[in-house]
Amino acid sequence: MYSVLTDPMKYGFAVGRVKVRETKMLGANRLDKLIGAADFADQKRILAETDYGSFLSEATTPEDVEKGLEEYLTSLYRFLSEVDLGSNVLSYFRAKYDFQNLKMMLKESCGDKSATHLWMDLGALKLEEVKSVMARGSFEDLEEPYGSAVREAKERFDETGDYQQINVILDKAFFGHLLAAAKSTYNGFFIDFVRMSIDLVNLKVFLRAKNLKRETAFFASSLVEGGFIDKGLLILLYNEPPEALAKQIRNQPYYEVVKESISAGGFDLSLFDKRADDLLVAHLQKAKFMPIGLEALISYIIAKENEVKDLRLVLIGKQNGLPPQMIKERVRVQYV
């Protein structure tokens, strides 16, 4: 059984506010209505009754949708700051935006195509300051673990000319940071969630490297430390047929995720992403049966971020003319 933090003085007020907000989440039924809506105007009419209404009321294009959803996430993080989760927990959730921004900025500075439109001002680092540091190349001005990770990624790119090395170095630093943040809370539920996330990242690295026929050395160097699955086992299986991996993990929760992703001698990464997110949601749903503690807060935040991903998929999918059934197949299992 997980070690549950039950200090109502520490988390009781925050959990109470989160439970109220959970009742306003979209849920599967409302997402179904959005998928079946006649057009984007009809979708906005449905959303007018939700928390998203005011953020998307003036939207007309996919770019407007992206902007509205980023503003919504900004308001979510403002709420999280108010309820005082603790600096380590909030750092955990903001870090992915910081690492993603740094990854895109470093690639661009190394000659890759510009991805300015994908930068998100939701991290712990101030975006304008990060842009200035990256433009100067003064990585030592970034706080840790960001500074050393960017410096190592730049050095590795200079040696190899391979943009994938930037992804590898920064992803490993990112998950190392997440695991350290989770361990600092001494919360088993949180730590297990991060270790499962690392396993799923390593499995996706396996699948992608197999699809791209990358050499074993590159695959082995891309694996992240800290998951439940032994890295040596994955390396041993790397040159075997795709079915060998599924067979080896048949007693683990990832079995169905990998098995369903096997496709025509390779792997369907889009299907893997959806099944992986569904598996993590199943883990989060255990928090519904736990007393007042950090679990409920963590689960709510991750569920809201997944909800935003799904809403983006439904709204932009509709604008781009995707058939409703195709959109529905890509939507994740809902937390509520």
Features:
two-stranded antiparallel ribbon, disordered N terminus, 336 residues, mainly alpha, globular
How would you explain this protein's 3D organization?
- The chain has helices spanning 8-22, 27-36, 40-47, 53-56, 62-82, 87-109, 127-136, 146-160, 163-183, 188-212, 216-222, 231-237, 242-248, 255-261, 269-284, 294-319, 324-330; strands at 262-263, 266-267.
- The chain has 336 residues and is mostly helical.
- Strands 1-2 form a two-stranded antiparallel sheet.
- Helix 10 runs antiparallel to helix 15 (269-284).
- The longest helix has 26 residues, at 294-319.
- The protein is globular and about 55 Å long.
Q: Which structural category do the helix and sheet elements fall into?
A: mainly alpha
- What is the mean pLDDT? 89
Strand content: under 5%
- How far apart the termini lie comes to 23 Å
Indicate the radius of gyration in whole angstroms.
21 Å
**What is the total tally of β strands?**
2
List the quaternary state of the chains.
single chain
Strand order of the largest sheet: 1-2
Residue stretches low in confidence (pLDDT < 50, at least 5 long) are: 1-6
Major sheet characteristics: 2 strands, antiparallel
Compact description:
This protein is mostly helical and 336 residues long.
Secondary-structure map with pairings?
Elements: H1 8-22, H2 27-36, H3 40-47, H4 53-56, H5 62-82, H6 87-109, H7 127-136, H8 146-160, H9 163-183, H10 188-212, H11 216-222, H12 231-237, H13 242-248, H14 255-261, E1 262-263, E2 266-267, H15 269-284, H16 294-319, H17 324-330
Antiparallel strand pairs: 1-2
Helix pairs in contact: 1-16, 2-3, 2-16, 5-16, 6-7, 6-8, 6-9, 8-9, 9-10, 10-15, 13-14, 14-15, 16-17
